């Protein structure tokens, strides 16, 4: 489960995306289970619909899931997403951020992505973690937390 906490620096990796290149930018890094599923679609659309406001507040948005690049391209094209989706098929970022792990559904246990969002400041410090994402209201959830 999530081992990082608010106030921690983000883990460094160059395997998928060099997070060091994102320093100097505020970042909404959201991890989601699967392209084209209802919750993930709602979350992506909510962030897309408020993307301009997020940009005005200085935020970049990046989504991460274990889906393939091809799946991300179809999902991005279908929803006309203005932000980057990262394919983490090797689960490098998912494990570094502690969002890959055991889940239960309908009495079955399996390994999967725990839907989680990290808000990261310009210095690469985690300022807020959302382990319970409201997919249809995620933008509002983020802005309310940042205002507190």
In short:
This protein has 148 residues and is of the alpha/beta class.
Structural account:
This protein has a five-stranded mixed sheet with strand order 3-2-1-6-7. The chain is an alpha/beta fold. Strand 6 and strand 7 form a beta hairpin. The mean pLDDT is 90. The chain has helices spanning 38-49, 51-56, 69-79, 92-96, 138-147, and strands spanning 26-31, 59-65, 84-87, 100-105, 108-113, 116-120, 126-130. The chain contains five helices and seven strands, in the order E-H-H-E-H-E-H-E-E-E-E-H. It has one domain (19-147): Glutaredoxin, CATH 3.40.30.
Strand % is 25-35%
Number of helical elements = 5
Order of helices and strands: EHHEHEHEEEEH
- Biggest beta-sheet profile: 5 strands, mixed
Please identify, by name, the CATH architecture.
3-Layer(aba) Sandwich
Feature tags:
five-stranded mixed beta sheet, 5 helices, two-stranded antiparallel ribbon, alpha/beta, globular
Topology:
Elements: E1 26-31, H1 38-49, H2 51-56, E2 59-65, H3 69-79, E3 84-87, H4 92-96, E4 100-105, E5 108-113, E6 116-120, E7 126-130, H5 138-147
Parallel strand pairs: 1-2, 2-3
Antiparallel strand pairs: 1-6, 4-5, 6-7
């Amino acid at each position: 489960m999530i081992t990082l906490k608010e106030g921690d620096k983000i883990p460094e990796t160059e395997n998928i995306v060099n997070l060091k290149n994102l320093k100097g930018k505020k970042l909404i890094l959201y991890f989601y289970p699967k392209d084209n599923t209802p919750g993930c679609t709602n979350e992506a659309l909510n962030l897309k619909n408020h993307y301009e406001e997020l940009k005005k507040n200085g935020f970049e948005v990046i989504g991460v899931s274990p889906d393939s690049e091809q799946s991300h391209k179809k999902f991005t094209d279908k929803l006309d997403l203005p932000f980057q989706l990262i394919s983490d098929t090797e689960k490098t970022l998912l494990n570094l951020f502690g969002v890959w792990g055991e889940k239960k559904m309908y009495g079955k246990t399996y390994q999967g992505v725990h839907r989680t969002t990290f808000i990261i400041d310009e210095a690469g410090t985690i300022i807020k973690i959302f382990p319970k994402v409201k997919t249809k209201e995620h933008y509002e959830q983020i802005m309310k937390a940042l205002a507190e």
